[in-house]
């Protein structure tokens, strides 16, 4: 497969290969000279139809560290505003001899649609509430780095599960790697199909924290919802906000994660987000090595390096 469209479509072996490759690139980007020539004959287009800070910069840095040629496209300043379709837009970009497309899009399944309609490798950088595969890979890689392994670990994903591509991709990745996964959040923010994913819903945050080794705190995605069915922010903070008081009640030290962007004081307080238990910036650091690994492995297939 010459795409990364979702964690659902890759195997545990694929994930382990990405991790081993990322181990190498993490060592590379910590050298005084962070750049390697691996992709110097590869051209990558980063197409962002939705806002991003971490993912966009992380892909661009990963590409530059691999010596790829990079073009960046932001829908807001493009001819998409004049009515050009996604397929026409991408085919025009590909005709400029682009080898690989990284795309973030607000619509679930946009990456899958594109992969069936254009002749290029596609990396999904987040498609609506569907999947965010490189986020799940960097999250699991960060758990492996902090706790030695993902297998056997207990991970709770807390918050707005319904609108979260991070939650879905994390569930697939963690299960493939042998972790136990629970989700915790208001029932108004739980997908109806959650039971079919093999995860238990724990509606009580304190019980979820007492159970877990790792808590992955998600942002409430106000931009994807009608506020009428959401608990008020004050109720949400009371029931699902992670604060020091909750952590201090536990007789163990759990690892705290967040994919960013953080709404400080809502899903997590600043003292927790900035504490030694939080690995939030390690996740961001690892994102570059993970994306280098994904791009290197995909480009190796396109260019037949092996
Ligand atoms: N975690 C994440 O995807 O952040 P951005 O939306 O800033 O890319």
From TrEMBL:
Matches recorded under NCBIfam families: asp_carb_tr, PRK00856.1
Bilayer-spanning residue ranges: none
Catalytic reactions of this protein: carbamoyl phosphate + L-aspartate = N-carbamoyl-L-aspartate + phosphate + H(+)
Any one GO MF annotation of this record: amino acid binding
Binding site for L-aspartate: 82, 165, 219
Boundaries of every Aspartate/ornithine carbamoyltransferase carbamoyl-P binding domain copy: 3-145
UniProt record similarity statement: Belongs to the aspartate/ornithine carbamoyltransferase superfamily. ATCase family.
EC number, UniProt record: 2.1.3.2
GO BP annotation list: 'de novo' pyrimidine nucleobase biosynthetic process; 'de novo' UMP biosynthetic process; amino acid metabolic process
Pathway: Pyrimidine metabolism; UMP biosynthesis via de novo pathway; (S)-dihydroorotate from bicarbonate: step 2/3
Complex formation: Heterododecamer (2C3:3R2) of six catalytic PyrB chains organized as two trimers (C3), and six regulatory PyrI chains organized as three dimers (R2).
Binding site for carbamoyl phosphate: 54-55, 104, 132, 135, 260-261
Name this protein carries in UniProt: Aspartate carbamoyltransferase
Residue span(s) of domain Aspartate/ornithine carbamoyltransferase Asp/Orn-binding: 152-298
Pfam family of the protein (one): OTCace_N
Keyword entries, A-Z: Pyrimidine biosynthesis, Transferase
Natural source organism: Psychroflexus maritimus
InterPro entries, A to Z: Asp/Orn_carbamoyltranf_P-bd (IPR006132), Asp/Orn_carbamoylTrfase (IPR006130), Asp/Orn_carbamoylTrfase_sf (IPR036901), Asp_carbamoyltransf (IPR002082), Asp_carbamoyltransf_Asp/Orn-bd (IPR006131)
